[in-house]
Amino acid sequence: QLHLVESGGGLVQAGDSLRLSCAASGRTFSVSTLGWFRQAPGKEREFVAGINWSGGATYYADSVKGRFTISRDNAKNTVYLQMNSLKSEDTAVYYCAAFKGTTWYVVRVRSRNEYDTWGQGTQVTVYS
Fold it and tell me: Residue 7 is inside which H or E element, if any?
């Protein structure tokens, strides 16, 4: 069982960058697909990015493609989300999550119902 803790959120101006980190404990981290999701006030939690166990496969929501980069360091049990060119619409609580499946299918990786372990979230606020 994984335990996930996000950090790195904050208040930034539009156009700035932030890097979120998600530190994991648990012996299954290095074999787990991980994802980043976000939830804005009054909206449903939405998929942002996913990465497979090796880092060799990634997938992004269209809204962040080209601006955000997901990566992982299995030696440090950490997954990252580099967010560049931030916009006000990126304002949300960001969560990392562990995928409960074992096979990389994009249609499943982008579904929040396929994740069974979640962190507590970190707030990102972008002002213009």
Answer: strand 3-7
Q: Are 96 and 3 in contact (CB under 8 A)?
A: no
E strands, 8-127, where? 10-13, 18-25, 34-39, 46-51, 58-60, 68-73, 78-83, 92-99, 115-118, 122-127
Convert the pLDDT of each residue in 15-24 to its tens digit: 999 999 999 9
Q: What is the pLDDT of residue 109?
A: 93
**Phi, psi angle pair for 29, to nearest 5°:** -55, -45
Q: How far is CA 6 from CA 37, 99, 102, 103, 106, in A?
A: 12, 16, 23, 24, 23
CA–centroid distance for 21 within its chain: 9
Query: Which residues neighbour 39 within 8 Å (Cβ) at sequence distance 6 or greater?
Result: 45, 46, 92, 93, 95, 121
